[in-house]
Amino acid sequence: MTLHHEPHATESLLLPLDGGDVHVCQDGPREAPALLLIHGSASSARSWDALVPLLTGSHRVIRIDLLGHGRSAKPAGDHYALPGQARRVAAAMDLLGVRRAVVAGHSSGGVADTALAELRPGLVTALALINTGPGLDAFIASEQAVISPGTWPPADEEIRRFARTGFSRPGYRLPDELLDEVRAMTHHSLTATMRATSEYLAARALPERLAELGKPLLVLFGADDRRWRSASADRYRVVPGATVELLPGLGHSPILEDPPRTAAPLLAFTARR
Fold first, then answer.
1. Which residues contact 154 (CB under 8 A, 6 or more apart)?
2. How far apart are alpha carbons 204 and 194 in whole angstroms?
3. Is the dihedral of CA 136, 137, 138, 141 positive or negative?
4. CB neighbourhood size of 143 (10 A)
5. How do 20-27 and 11-17 pair as beta strands?
6. Biggest distance spanned by C-alpha atoms of the chain
7. Residue 237 DSSP code
8. CATH code of residue 143
9. Which stretches of the chain are DSSP H helices?
């Protein structure tokens, strides 16, 4: 385990877990209520960078690079199924001494949140899903660029074409550091993690899983999402007491497109937990 620590500064750890090292970072007062943030596919903990300073006034903010992403290991083989990813997240939280946390996920990170709540319902007090499609039938088919293994690692413009449906705000340009996160993946870790999300959703839709769990739920959805139909957010209303909110003018990635508008309802939700 490597550790760099200053009071309330970002704390960065590499935790040796099954499948390889998993990178975790923490911000905010360590005695504050825990808020776990999980990134989406082809991303990393860095996708939350702009949002974190808006959350640390009241939370111990924990971010994790799922296996295959960011600074975590990227093994070959079959390590990327959602139950396994959830098991590693739970193990990381145990090592950090976190017994209860609100968990928030962007895109497929919300699928990982759900898998974690199924695995460890005592750990997860509430869930916030940000532009997480409820089921495969809500996915918007497009001519999204495919990155082939023969051109790996991909060039900047190839990654931008691949990610173009992830944003809708006029003039928004994907930060260079997030291009680096895609390049740092292997082609196998990219395709295997995306396939794992599809398999999990095909087995059972998220609203059904979450209704059974009975956890408090916040669903935020950029109204102009180009990957998942924003109207599908209403399907989460089958979860008793769920709060569903559309964010006009934003697309699939409100955590990047408009962090303050994303943080406000998230903080209001966590304050009630």
1. 147, 162, 182, 183
2. 16
3. positive
4. 7
5. antiparallel
6. 49
7. G
8. 3.40.50.1820
9. 52-55, 82-95, 108-119, 156-163, 176-184, 187-203, 206-213, 254-257, 259-271
> pTM to 2 decimals?
0.93
Residue 269 CA to residue 8 CA, distance in Å, equals 23
Gap between the Cα atoms of 177 and 173, Å rounded: 11
Residue type, 86: A
The residue assigned the tokens 């990219």 is: 190
**Residue 31 CB contacts under 8 Å (≥ 6 apart), including other chains:** 60
> Which tokens go with 250?
């934003």
Output DSSP code: residue 139. B
Query: Whole domain around residue 172: which residue ranges?
Result: 3-271
Q: Count how many domains the chain has.
A: 1
The tens digit of pLDDT for each residue in 42-73 reads: 999 999 999 999 999 999 999 999 999 999 99
221 pairs with which residues across the strands? 246
